[in-house]
Specification:
The chain is mostly beta strands. Helices cover about 15% and strands about 35% of the residues. A hairpin with a 4-residue loop joins strand 4 and strand 5. It is globular and about 50 Å long.
């Protein structure tokens, strides 16, 4: 019975989404929030400088990161976030189609 409880506890801990481990950051300048990771995705809104955001995950190399703030949720170029997110948030190779908020432009 104790072994079953340990396994059940481990399963619950592993099921906690990585998003629960978001990293706090802020924009260093006006920053486009896009529907996906790249300039080929539509701009959904623009965040002003010094906007607080929560970084949920980034693409490999930490170039594009999914954020949310009081004003928006989407993908931003991480070069314009301070402090740097490098090594501090989960990496995704490529978000699934269901995760993308809009289609690529063009």
């Amino acid at each position: 019975m104790p072994r079953l409880r340990i396994l059940a506890s481990a399963a619950i801990l592993l099921a906690v989404p990585l998003a629960a481990h978001a990293f706090s950051s802020s924009t260093t300048r006006s920053l486009n929030v896009r529907g996906g990771p790249g300039t080929h995705f539509e701009v959904q809104t623009v965040l002003p400088p010094r906007t607080s955001v929560r970084v949920r995950r980034c693409t490999s190399g930490w170039r594009w990161c999914e954020i949310d703030s009081r004003r928006a949720r989407g993908w931003v170029d991480s070069r314009f976030l301070e402090p740097s997110v490098r090594g501090r948030v989960p990496i995704v190779n490529q978000p699934s189609r269901d995760d993308r908020r809009s289609r690529p432009v063009g």
